[in-house]
Design goal:
With about 180 residues, the chain is an alpha+beta fold. It contains 4 helices and 11 strands, in the order E-E-E-E-H-E-H-H-E-E-E-E-E-E-H. It has a single domain (about 15-175), classed as Electron Transport, Fmn-binding Protein, Chain A (Pnp Oxidase, Chain A). The longest helix has 8 residues, at about 55-65.
Length: about 180
Amino acid sequence: MHTLALEKAFTLIEPGPVVLVTTNDGEKNNIMTITWTMVMGFSAEFAITTGAWNYSYAALQSSRECVISIPTVDMIDTVVGIGTCSGEDTDKFQKFGLTALPGKHVRAPLIKECLANIECRVADIIERHSIVVMEGVAAYFDGTRKEKRMLHAVGDGTFIVDGRKFDRREMMRSKLPPGV
């Protein structure tokens, strides 16, 4: 093995898939690309890392709601483009040709072109670690979409794409205690 610079260690453990997070500040919709996501347990609780450096952060703080939209590999240039411009001076829905669909439970829009969307309420903001904890209130999945592979950011401008699924449910069930 060779030594890896400690500041690059995070590239070895990539987080959940890259997501687009939509917000509405009461006047306009916005989208931000988030490359650090986490599922919290076996419920509809999620966490992302963001802070005041993202224009959408103020809308997250004030509205306490958003939509997590899950793009697929065919959207990689859109995902990167969204992450490299600011909603302060750019209508990202218009610039990237995305369709905003109204949420049923939150003001933030769903993104029609994404594989899935999760309407969320902000449960907590842990400023010390720039973590926003969200509780899902509704989820939608487009099973008709041909492309279903998700993106994972390594953290240095490169991405990994989900591949083939391996089914080990039966094997895992045999190892769980009864009733689980």
